[in-house]
Amino acid sequence: MTRVRDDARAVLVIDVGTSGLRTALVGAAGTLVDYLHVVQPPSTPSPGLVEFDAMRMYEAAVEAATTIVRRNDHIEVASLGITNQRASVVAWNARTGEPVGPGIGWQDLRTVIECITAKSEHGLAIAPNQTATKAAWLLANHAAGTPADDLRFGTIDTWLTWKLSGGAAFVTDHTNAAVTGLVNVDTVDWDPRVCAIFGLRVESLPRIIASREVVGPVVGHRGLDGIALAARIGDQQSSLVGQGCITPGRTKITFGSGGMLDMYTGRIGPSEAKRTVHGTFAIVALSLDGETREIHWGTEAIMLSAGTNVEWLCSDMGLISSPQESDEVARAAGSTAGVSYLPALLGLGTPDWDYGARGTLTGLTRGTKRGHIVRAVLDGIAHRGADLLDAALRDAASRGVEAPATLRIDGGMSRNATFVQLLADATGKAVEVSPVSEATTLGAAFLAGTARDTGAIWPTLDAAVSTWAPATTVRPSISDTARATARDKWAQTLRSAKAWIPDLSALDF
């Protein structure tokens, strides 16, 4: 490819989410030069099942990537990074290049019983949203007739890299592999014992490599051929990198349908791969290429429903006409007038992990108005964000990691000014809002754009993330005393919502 001016070079990113995908070009200033979003929701053939067409996903990604490169043909594409929804799995025949069954999404619950069995019979803490039992289900239900030597299993990063490389690169990175439930935390490599329990051959699983590592060029895709496949990383870790959180204590929360807090903790890994007493999980934050691969760790806390609650106000309750209207309505209300809402439509995640908890709306009076309820919903999501932060800080303190001075956020709800203020008030932290709502795209670009032997956009990852600057910073507007009172009231609301469905509350993964 002909060399052009440095200000006319960019990194191509394929960013695959749960309900769609985007492709983007990210320039040296750390901003989106151009992007294209494709809606591609999963299918739910019956309650609890979440599937996707892996071939259609691949074809849509290629079409979108080709389109964005062609309409910016004056820009040199230095490399390609992939970021993806984690734990979703694809099984395919390496000889034909075709999936052998449906892709199984991370939200799919068809293997809950298998997760319970794995714990009771083998002592394995495998959650339904991890890959292990989903891959085993595909093996049992769709692999008949496919020779074992031809069968491949992989998360979405693996599937796309394999297809884009013309079958030459069968790899995944540490961030994706570590959330499959199939990795030994000490070696950060496939655990033969665990794989055998689920009937999976290690040979059918991809080679685990660094998040930033060139595995060859794109092959067989006109318009994309020759671009270096330089990075692959799970979506939440990509958002962490994309918001510049690569020093110990730096923390981000992504507020989408759910809420995901990730805190960078450093180079020291966990002693065991299970949920902590504070309800968080150790994750691989990223890994870097080099003579000795650098593995960096983090802590993750999870809110099962965030933006879903706003969608409920709109689509099911009819209190607002669109999610965007929640900002205006809640701001006009001025307060919740004593109304409190717990966003537990799908149960509670960190720190409680109570799948039988349910959403609650308390403090209603004859004077309660629409705006009070809408504001209470946003306030409840903000307090759940504070719960995640509190849990992560407790775990971080036990590892000698200092609390962050600020909190960084992205996701659709980061564009809701009233919500951001409520979050600052609930956490007592200044909240820095990402300049792009999907910081996942930036993270994959920063990694791919610093890979060696690609004509890197940035000399180092530190230099890449230094381009990040918040769109706005929102500081707390209430006193510490008022915050403590609000958090005490929140604790009462939290207690009222637990164990509504005892059988579900008894589940523990």
**If you average the pLDDT, what whole number results?**
95
**Low-confidence runs of at least 5 consecutive residues:** 1-6
The top level CATH class name of the largest domain: Alpha Beta
Helix content: 25-40%
Specify the number of helices: 15
Tell me the domain tally.
Answer: 2
**Alpha-carbon distance between the two ends:** 50 Å
Roughly how many Å is the radius of gyration?
22 Å
- Briefly note the structural class of the backbone: alpha+beta
The CATH topology of the largest domain, please? Answer: Nucleotidyltransferase, domain 5
The overall strand count is 23
Q: If strands are numbered along the chain, what order do they take across the biggest sheet?
A: 17-18-16-15-21-22-23
Share in β-strands? 15-25%
- Tell me the CATH superfamily of the largest domain: ATPase, nucleotide binding domain
CATH architecture of the largest domain: 2-Layer Sandwich
Protein architecture, described:
The protein is an alpha+beta fold. It folds into two domains: 6-234, 2-Layer Sandwich (Nucleotidyltransferase, domain 5); 236-303 and 389-474, 2-Layer Sandwich (Nucleotidyltransferase, domain 5), CATH 3.30.420.40. It is 32% helix and 22% strand. The chain has helices at residues 54-70, 112-122, 132-142, 156-164, 174-177, 192-197, 235-242, 307-316, 325-333, 370-398, 417-427, 440-448, 461-465, 480-497, 502-505, and strands at residues 9-16, 20-27, 32-39, 51-52, 76-84, 90-93, 98-99, 103-104, 151-154, 171-173, 183-184, 189-190, 207-209, 229-234, 251-255, 259-266, 281-288, 294-303, 340-342, 360-362, 406-410, 430-433, 472-474. The strands form seven sheets. Strands 17-18-16-15-21-22-23 form a seven-stranded mixed sheet, with helices on both faces. Strands 3-2-1-5-14 form a five-stranded mixed sheet, with helices on both faces. α10 crosses α11 (417-427). The longest helix is centred in the last third of the chain and has 29 residues, at 370-398.
